[in-house]
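protien #1 (seq + structre)
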Amino acid sequence: MPGRRRHSPGPRAALTAAACAALLLGPPPTAHAADHRTARHLVTGSVTGDIEVHDPSAIRLKDGTYVVYSTHNGIEARTSADGRHWRRAGSAFRSTPAWWRAYSAESDPWAPEVLHRGGTYWLYYAVSSFGSNHSAIGLATSPTGRPGTWEDRGVVFSSSTADDYNAIDPGVIQGGGRLWMSFGSHWTGIRMVELDPRTGKARPGAPVHHLATRPDAPYAVEAPAIVKRGPYYYLFVSYDRCCAGTDSTYNIRVGRATSPTGPYTDRDGTPMTEGGGELLLASRGRYVGPGGQSVLREPGGRDVLVHHYYDAEDGGVPKLALRTLRWDDADWPAVGR
């Protein structure tokens, strides 16, 4: 079925030490990464505490605290002083905006994207139902970025059953002096619209650009996140099946372009609108179905891939992973496998 369901086993007590076994998916940190830790940058690798998340997006607040926002329960929030130990810290919203009901009977928001721009924290998120493209992307703002401080600003962009795209999974990037939002799940894949930088909402009448799709139904590509590095914009996406515990086949792909609107191609030059996408991360051992990714830009130029996976040694519970992105001589990203 087109689209996807965001599934979580529901609220649980903080995970036990056994359930939060060290997340060591890559090689030991380099000396450069150790220098970043000394400077109180985000610690990647082993994470503990309450790490049961879906579709995480992370940000470093002005006081150095890290916050991860994720799908469900009014956009769940977890905080950490160093990125290693996380605790549940409530939700982004104190109350449910009335307009959510028009798109989700459960009023259950998905797939947040958090950023800081112009002295304000911005939180984009999706409201929809499994298998439907009657969907909307909303926006909230906060002066501090902390859970419980967000004020909803309403609908940014929406789709209906008459459209051939799905307005979920927002990802926001500034490029060429303009503000852009990528989005999409299944249907015709990943799309993009220009935002008004003053309101953070879609410009009226803005064209919908096409960034990526798959060649065959159900066109399983979603969760776009775009970052700029040097002359290139990098589009990270999740391929295949999400939200099925240890049966999930999610994997993370990437392509790049010299313009926010594309065309994005993989290392071999295959356009992402034709199913291209360089494989970045796939299942390995207990770490099943990595995806739902975002990228945290750290001070000093370090990039951290933030994503969930399904823990095959803990009943397929979705958990948080933090992975340092490394860049090769050809300026393609890689993570330790």
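ok now protien #2
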Amino acid sequence: MKKIGKLSLVLLVGLALTGCSQNSKQNTAPKKNATTKTVKNNKKPTRMGHLSAQDLTPQKTVAVVVAYAGNRYSGSWNKALLDGKQNELEVDLKNQSDYSYMNEGSGVAYMVSENAGYTLKQVDGENIYYLFLNGKKLESVTMKEMVAYLNKRDSDKLVTNLAKNAKVNDERSDSNNASPNSTGKKSNLPGDDGLLNVPRELQGTWYTYPADDNKLETIKISQNKIDNGYSSLELHKINAKFANNHLYSDMSKSYRNATKNWGMAQMIGKKIHNINYLNVRTWMQGAGDGIYYGAHTESGQSVVVIGEGAGLWTNSVAWKTPQLAQQYKHKKFRDLFYRDDQ
């Protein structure tokens, strides 16, 4: 019995020592792990947005596109984003046919400024957005891709605020939308086929120095009018059959008075020297080629090329500011067609 007691005592002491040894290892070894845990806990979690590509209102769709493009691209896209933050976000729905460089889409151009906009088309059940700037395509992107990009930047609040102040204006003309000569309101006067809707990229105030002239010329082009400083013309399409069978000199005095400020206008409908031109002549003008206005890009800037004559030679290039007009005064560009080139 005593031997058994001594043996039990030895076993108990051994177990106690083993436990102390294990506790000692546990108290010393995990120090590295504790440090690792502290580092992990101090790491800031990545913030993610919660935007969804599903069931977006028209306003929120515009907000997503502008937030995405405004962050990725400079110029008019970024300006549209900044304006949307400070004031309101505005997009005009236009006829895609009014923009010669928009070759992809479903017929509607969504313009956030004169030279920045997008079109969209459904492909395999998913909407593809085509982004444009200064007459050039930037990229094609899906709504899911734009939303994913914005979610990585936690842009929920930005998109919500933009959508809250977003305004969508439908400015598409009613008929002949697919025609290069989209038509507006028609009068009751013989020969009038309606106002010609000028492509958006031609609209605005432009500045140029005509060839062999050191005087700055200002040209203002709106949806249906053009003012070159010498005359202001309301742009109408003319009925071809009427034009072939009537002379202006044979028309009544009242007719001539009613049309004295009309311009006979048409989009050429095909590229000449790689440019789509608007041709403007006085109403029922017989002889003469009139003046041609073509949207183009030079030195990274949106410009209007002004052409003349039977060969549609370049007379000058009109710019968005007097400073640019002065900078490129009388400069001849290699991609344009001049009378000297013939």
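The chain has two domains: 58-170, 192-341.
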